[in-house]
Amino acid sequence: MFKHFIVFVFCFFVVSHLKSQYIIYGYVQDSSSLEKLIGTNVKILNGNSGTISNNYGYFSLKANKDTVILSISHIGYKQTYISINKNTPMPITIPVVQEGVMFDNVTFKLKKESKMVEDVQMSTINISSNQIKMLPRFMGETDLIKAIQLMPGIKGGSEGSSGLYVRGGGADQNLILLDGAMVYNPSHLFGFFSVFNTDAINNVQLLKGGFPARYGGRLSSVLDITMKDGNMKKFKGEGSIGALASKFTFEGPIVKDKVSFMVSARRTYLDLILQPILKASSGNPNFNQGYFFSDFNAKLNWKLNSKNRLYLSFYNGIDKFYQENKPYSYLYDGNVIKEQSLARNQWGNQLATLKFNQIVNKNLFINTQLNLTKYFYEIDESISNSEQTDTGLTEQYNFNGFGSRINDITLKSDAEYNQGRHYLRFGLSAIHHQFVPGQSKVVYRKTGERSIDTAFGSGRTNSLEMSAYVEDDYDWSTRFKVNYGLHFNLYNYKKSFFPTIQPRMAVRYLINKSLSLKGSFANMSQNIHLLTNNTIGLPNDLWVPATNLIKPMRSNQVAMGVAKTIGKYEFTFETYYKTMKNVIEFKEGASFLNVNNSWENKVAVGNGEAYGFEFLAQRKSGNFTGWIGYTLSWVKRTIPELNFGKEFYYKYDSRHDFSFVLNYKENEKWDYGLVWVYRTGNALTMPTGAYPGAVIGGLAGSGLGYGTVYTYSGRNNFRFADYHRLDLSVTRHYKKKWGMIDLNFSVYNAYSRINPFYYRIGTDFKGNKQITRVGLFPILPSVNLGFKF
Amino acid sequence: MRYLVIILVVLVFSSCEKTEKIEDYPTHKSLLVSNCIFGQSNGFNFMLSKSLSPLDNAPFKQLVHPRAFVKLFENEVMVDSFGFRTVNNNTFLESAIVPKPNFKYRFEAFFPGFAKVSGEDIMPEIIDIVDVKSSKIVKNYDFSSALTLDMDLILSNTHQNNDYIILEFNRPVDIDTNGASYFYEDLTGLKLNNATLEYEHFDNKLYIKTNGQKINQISIRRESIEYAYGIQSVQNKMEVSIANCSKTTFEYLRRFNLQQYNEFDPFAEPTPISNNIINGYGIFGAMGLTMKEFTF
What pLDDT does residue A207 have? Predict the structure, then answer.
């Protein structure tokens, strides 16, 4: 039987191969900057073959006729047509011209093909940095994550947060990749801003389901962000000055048409502005305190030859609260005393990626990459002082700190093999994780005394993940296309091994050129957990490995949908059902402040379930652009140790979620943005009754009538008030000889809705108990000045 | 334009808080609360009160009524019926019955204006501590002393059931309050009959589920890691309490003590308290308690 199967598969491939005449392959890129274009629809007009350019702008497709016309379409670019024959030298580089650019002799406008309808991949969100920049801004800052939160199926957690909760998944279930390197904490300032500087971004793709086999490691989403490569032709710069932060991006050729670079930096400066005021108010010239966050992106792109490319990219982002007393000395009782102190609370990501692209032959494209990822959180305080007396010098040093970090080294290789109707992808990867989930350190030194230098808590531990995948994009017929594959993962922690085989499948049936039906199934596994606090979102969430006690998470997701285009409008309707196994939550009564217990003792393990419907109507071209998104969803958890084993709604279960996004480009000078969002409030646990408890204190001292027992009708038994908000923006563009100036005025929360951040039970001035809804942001107007040259 | 600016400024600086209407809050139906944790040493002692809404301004108070009474059943046979009595200005609902191991006890409480409440539990056996063996490592520094103690508790072998055990350790320590003195004290390496089991500990207590194993030896390592200076004089003695609990009592005490322990921790997850009172709230739970003091 197996032999027959092998013969069948062999014949199938041979026949497929014989039918094909030649392969067209190469790169799609921006005509002016030579920046690669990702996700470009490349299609043979007088044939049935079509494909989408990958993360490197590379495409490959089969032609059955000697001469064909390639149609290339990309949002924001003119539709391009190129005639190709079998003698055209390959790889071919196709320049595509941006809309509004007045040069070209090969382009002409025709009705665009809809990638959304034709693509077998469903549950996908593509959003360009230009779309993000047109949205109203929060404190003057454009934000990638906040833009994505406006899409159906995605929730942002609490007010102002840049968290991602995709189709009922947790904040830890998103694989966030920046140029292929994993980002563990994508937010700044307690989650109000994301770490991604939109000026440095080329492309963003978010997958909510139907994950192809090439992705693995997380249950709920893949957010794949590609940084700009840098302009190969000329030096370009852009930046902005805002109320909170300023940023600047500079790119250009090092060797024209061969090597380019891009650097981008962003920093907040509230601390610098407030420093003189704080010093004056403290009355101490040596006193200094503040907060800032900063990002630095850099990338080098080296085109070795027409077939080989090398990329080197780097990201460093940090948030830092600091309070310091710079060294100072004074006289006390005739002795000279010197003192200094520093308290810090800081966290950040550091990423580095080295990639090598190679077109091995007409069929085979390989990308090999090495990624380094580091995420750290530290809170510490150090005090040192010395006293010079007649008898000698006495020095003392105290240090108390808590730290958590994760370091990853990833080596992976991905290949794409075009075999005509079969487009195969396969690859290997290995990730070495090093965790320090949470460790306290104490140092005490004093002249003449014995020193203390000790650490306690959850110390360093390692784990290893190895993966392999194979995936086939198969054109069964002109109407029916299937993507199927397997993702293998072997996870090792200490002496335990957890192997998984994860089947994936996505199908598309094209009813006509403007209507398709889609379906998908994805089995996913995740070997890493995030201990996150449910009460207040703080950066000291701890990443921990799956262990024998807390096993890897698993999920199955089935989704079905319809994609339809009517003129310039695109419509998608999707429904999904997802189950999750081994999801974790903090146990009842657990607190991350309690270092007495190891993290494994603080968490409870159980199952999750999510299902819902999503609708998206969008228009991506023309003067009016934007979208309407609606989600109807349910998210539940069942964890034996919580809620007395009964099922409960997840914290971010929100029945209705509606977003309306409208951008209007009046002319070359003015454009306007409007966002209105509405969603049902999040769930939280509130007491429903209280009575005196029976026992307090030691067992021996057990007594009656002490303490208050709070009763709860269930976990997450209460709902936040509904969330809604209106944001508005207006942008004036000034064209200058040297470039462009954009003046943006935005209003966040235009009607100053008090959206709940948390609830507090307290008393009013008469002593009556009351519940207070505490919001974070009332109406927040902001101005931002952008420039580009 | 001027008015627009004024409106904007007023909006920006207006408070971002709003008091919710109380009616929006889940309603609470007040029920009779009966609290009684019984054992051989303390017998049956009830306290009655009523539950309140968390938003209620009234304080808790003990309910007393001349027509209120409690019926007590032992293995479904009524063995006592009693009302309130006053001793030294304190009012009690108390029975002279001494609970017997492995007997089921049930109560019914009647209070005018409330529905009858009831509950039941089985009295566990007392676990005697036969011997305590300890070896200590005292790290004496100039400014403090830290203590690591390896302890073996040898238990009597006469008891039958011990699924739920609470262990408590108290080490009398005199701390010189003039110097900041902190100790990180941990109970680690718990072994029951030389088998490592999962356990939970906070507030100097260990909560152990033995999962059906009969336990006659508990080995434990108590670690102290000093991390700040101070002056302490440590007494060389330790009190050990071992409570063999019914499941009801164990869960109640574990959850209640956890709720109290986390009272001022804003990051702690809420802890719902288990309740075994029918038509009301509270606890009717059994506990066999033994205490032993030893020196090292």
Answer: 94
